[in-house]
Write a structure and sequence with these properties.
single chain, Rossmann fold, about 190 residues, 7 helices, 6-stranded parallel sheet, alpha/beta
Length: about 190
């Protein structure tokens, strides 16, 4: 496909918003103050903005897929009101130890597996080689490596702790303080 575009794949909890454990109410969803600004920068730089999020709370019966959709719609609205845009929202509701039997599966979409990124690339016409995954966990960087794009670890959420625990055979292209820092790094390091 010749009309593919690069994307910024963003983890949700701990990257875009405070990681408050299993977020089961809209009132507990608190965006970082810089999140929408960073998304606007990504869009202005020509990237699609795509959310990739594990939502094991669904698998454990803490909330339903309808609530994941409610948060996605809320986030999309906040982005739009802030002059940004979210081009895709992908989530994994599965867990190998799920309390809800229908979600107890070994899937290809649960990060660190790359299924969500691959599906987004196919559905949205994304050039993975020119894309980047940004998140606060090594599993986000593992997705980047699995699909052949760059990976940025941010120190929000679990990121500061994760940065102190390097993973064998896995390294980030950059470690940034937060999503705005990642946006600045990305602008300073365009794909050759």
């Amino acid at each position: 496909m010749t009309d593919t575009r690069p994307a910024v794949f963003l983890d949700r909890d701990g990257t875009i918003n405070l990681d408050a454990g299993y977020i089961d109410r809209l009132e507990r969803f608190e965006l970082y103050p810089f999140a929408i600004d960073a998304m606007r920068i990504f869009k202005q730089a020509g990237y699609l903005v795509v959310i990739l999020t594990n939502q094991a709370g669904v698998a454990h019966g803490m909330y339903g897929e309808d609530f994941v959709a409610t948060i996605a719609a809320h986030l999309a609205d906040r982005a739009t009101r802030g002059g940004a845009q979210i081009d895709g929202h992908y989530y994994c509701p599965h867990s190998p130890d799920a309390a809800v039997p229908k979600y107890r599966v070994e899937c290809e979409c649960r990060k660190p597996k790359p299924g969500m990124a691959r599906r987004a690339a196919e559905e949205l016409g994304i050039d993975l080689g020119r894309s980047v995954v940004i998140g606060d966990r090594w599993r986000d960087i593992a997705v980047a490596r699995a699909v052949g794009c760059r990976g940025i670890l941010v120190k929000t959420g679990y990121g500061a702790t994760e940065a102190l625990r390097p993973q064998p055979g896995l390294s980030a292209d950059a470690v940034c303080d937060d999503l705005i820092g990642a946006a600045v790094w990305l602008l300073d390091h365009p794909v050759p």
